[in-house]
Request: fold
Amino acid sequence: VNVIAPGLVNTQLIGTEVSTVDWNAQAGQLQLVPRAAAPEEIVKFVCFLLSDDAAFITGSVQAIDGGILLKM
Amino acid sequence: VLAISQAQGGEAYAVVADVTKNADNRRIVGETLTKYGRLDVSFINAGTGERVSITELDEDLLDKLLATNVKGVAYAFQYQLPAIEKSGGKGSILVNSSCAGSRATANPDFRSGGVYAASKAAANMLAQYAVSVCHCTGTHLEY
Reply:
């Protein structure tokens, strides 16, 4: 059992429901990596954590946030 | 998800459910076991991201946020952990939380995110205690 802790991700949800917000501009202010993540960048990590290759990782909260925690 | 999976040559089976309902979480796992006979991996992904200041709480909004982000995760573990155990105990569960659940901040950009952050912090704790439960009860969940 593990947890992922993403930052800003450019999903259809934020694209449609909050379309007035420029998420890449937001990310530039909040994160070290100045853009929102593509969903595919999260998916690759999800697949790894659910795979046998991640067998030694358990009980962890994995940041995948473009460095947002370092600027909070 | 069903269409994407099938377009890539995979097999998929969809269950329409409301994760805030205990019975629906039981049904998701039950139908999976009926269809495939076992549960190996789970991505607990459903969540909602309403932003509301603590001083302007709306009861319905708060209930929706906590029901999806906290109760939904708790109910998922309730049925998925035993299902993986019955499948041989070699499985993996991953919760989609948020960086907001890892640390509080005084950054004004996050001032309406306190309740959301609290719900994600709760999801993190549920996941880590799920690991603990596996080990304490002898469930041989490998990872």
